[in-house]
Structures are given as structure tokens and as C-alpha cells.
Design a protein that fits this description.
312 residues, alpha+beta, 6-stranded mixed β-sheet, 4-stranded antiparallel β-sheet, 7 helices, 21% helix
Length: 312
């Protein structure tokens, strides 16, 4: 009989998964087992997890944290015929209690972006609901991959996200870019189509709406991908990249790839909870043989995270 066990890398390659909830959902779908059948199999092994709890786990509405639940996750790897330690590493550390919740009031644009009045005007030029659309989803997982050219300028940013609706009737997400002196172009890649784009030539804000392939109600999740890129010769040399979170997330990865003949001398990560707060250094980052460095965080709180480097 052919081997059925699948590694995490194979699941991600074949089913386009991301954080724990999506990987679990994909593995359950691939197994052909119902949630009730999985619940019974867990009970037979001494772990009592209801079908409803399994549903919450795979939707991202809740996640296993108690000792009994974590034992059930290890058993799920067996029941779903995954290689050991496929699901467990995706859980990361326990969630912090008390300060932040997924439905926390989001940071205002002024806490994240400078000249936020101009950004808000650019956003509302998409329509009166644009600001609400910006905050109507929580980002569960983001992987941002930015490529730089040999002339040290940004060329292409690939963004992959898992989002969750914080209200009913969510049909779009909003992307905000700030490229000094650059002409920004957007492309839809997966599960979205490109809507309207607005640019402020004075402050260089560029905002775009991406229409989801289905309407989300509260608690529903979706995975999306899109790309932004700058026209050649329109961007100045850049020494950092940033990504802002308006609400806490489950995971954030910022990856920066450099041209082989333009590798920085040093690279480090940083964070600021608000635009006017002191910046915190998160430590040096290693630039590997693939000419890239990355920052990977579990359960990041709201604020701006980035990678900075020195060319000389």
C-alpha cells in the first residue's frame, strides 16, 4: 500500500496552507474524515475533544492550549496520517492573556502612519466605507516577501495573508503602501481580484482594494495573495522595509531578498508599538546563502515591525 503520510512542506505546497488552523483544516479535508469521526477516534485514544472544538480550531476561532488539548493535537497527527510534529510547531507559544484579544479595538491610522490625515483622505476616495473595510478584518497570518534589485531599490513585494472577518458582510480587504517617489502597481494572485486604486502624489500613499472571492461573516476566514511592484527606476535606494498590524495576529513573517551583487553588510529587526513611541531593536538577522533575511514572530501585538540594513 502506498505511503499516505504527508509532511508539512508537502501540505503547504499542495494545499496552500499557512498557520495552524489552515493546516489542520487542509489535513482534515485531505483525510476524508468527518469532525464527528475524528472526535470519536480521539475519544478512543483517551482525548475528549468535541466536533465543535475541532471546528473552532480549524476556523482559527480558538486554538488548543490546555495540556489535554495539546495531547489531542499530537494524536491528530496520527489520526490524520501526518508525520509527527507537523501540527504542534505551528501553535507557537501560549497566547498572552488580558491585554490583547483578536477583537481588540484596532489601532487608528495615526498611530501607525505619518501624515495620516492624507492617508485617510486617500482611503475615503475609494468610498465612504474604505476605512471601515481596513479594520473589518483581523490578520491571522502574514508572509511578506520583498525583493530588491542590484541598484538597491525595491522591485516586488509578494503578500500572503490569512484574514478573519470581525463583522458580517466583509467582501474586500484594503492594502496600503508608501513608496517615496515610486509608481506602485498591484496585482491579484489568489482568492481576490483587484478593485480600485488611489494614490496621493504629494505624500506617496497608494491604497488598493482587493475583492474577496466570497463574502465573509463574523469569524469566517480566507487566505489571499497579492503583489505590489515598483516601475524600474522610480524608487530611491531603500534601507528598510516595514509592515504594520492594526490588531494582534497569530504569526508574521517579513522576508527580504537581495540581489546577489548587492548584499547588505548588516541587517536587524525592529518594532514600535505606535509611530510616536521609541523604536525597539529585536536583534540582528542573518543573511543566508539565498541572499535573504527574515523576521518571524508568533503572536505579535499591534504596531509596526520591520527589517533594516546597511549597504556599506
Amino acid at each position: 500500500m502506498p505511503e499516505k503520510r504527508r509532511s508539512l512542506s508537502e501540505i503547504e505546497r499542495n494545499f496552500h496552507t499557512g498557520p495552524f488552523s489552515e493546516t489542520l483544516r487542509t489535513a482534515i479535508a485531505n483525510s476524508g474524515l468527518s469532525l464527528h469521526r475524528i472526535s470519536r477516534k480521539l475519544a478512543e485514544r483517551g482525548a475528549n475533544v468535541s466536533p465543535a472544538a475541532l471546528s473552532y480550531w480549524q476556523r482559527g476561532s480558538n486554538r488548543p492550549e490546555r495540556a489535554e488539548s495539546l495531547r489531542a493535537v499530537a494524536l491528530l497527527e496520527e489520526i490524520l496520517e501526518l508525520t509527527p510534529h507537523t501540527l504542534m510547531p505551528l501553535l507557537g507559544p501560549p497566547r498572552s492573556r488580558g491585554r490583547w484579544t483578536a477583537s481588540s479595538t484596532p489601532l487608528p491610522t495615526g498611530a501607525v502612519w505619518s501624515r495620516s490625515g492624507s492617508l485617510n483622505r486617500t482611503l475615503t476616495s475609494l468610498g465612504p466605507q474604505a476605512l471601515r473595510s481596513l479594520w473589518s478584518v483581523s490578520t491571522l497570518y502574514t508572509h511578506l516577501h520583498e525583493r530588491f534589485t542590484a541598484d538597491r531599490t525595491p522591485h516586488r513585494t509578494h503578500v500572503r495573508k490569512a484574514v478573519r472577518a470581525e463583522e458580517d458582510g466583509v467582501d474586500r480587504i484594503i492594502a496600503v503602501m508608501h513608496n517615496e517617489g515610486a509608481a506602485t502597481h498591484f496585482e491579484a494572485v489568489r482568492a481576490v481580484r483587484l478593485g480600485r486604486i488611489r494614490t496621493d502624489p504629494e505624500t506617496h500613499y497608494c491604497v488598493a482594494e482587493f475583492i474577496l472571492d466570497r463574502v465573509l461573516n463574523t469569524g469566517d476566514t480566507a487566505t489571499v495573495e497579492y503583489v505590489s511592484h515598483s516601475a524600474p527606476g522610480t524608487s530611491p535606494a531603500q534601507q528598510c522595509t516595514r509592515h504594520s498590524l492594526y490588531r494582534p495576529a497569530s504569526a508574521l513573517v517579513i522576508e527580504v531578498e537581495f540581489a546577489p551583487d548587492a548584499i547588505p553588510v548588516t541587517c536587524e529587526a525592529f518594532y514600535t508599538p505606535r509611530r510616536d513611541a521609541p523604536e525597539r531593536r529585536l536583534g540582528p538577522l542573518w543573511i543566508g546563502n539565498g541572499n535573504s533575511a527574515h523576521l518571524a514572530l508568533s503572536d505579535p501585538g499591534p504596531g509596526t515591525y520591520g527589517v533594516r540594513w546597511d549597504w556599506d
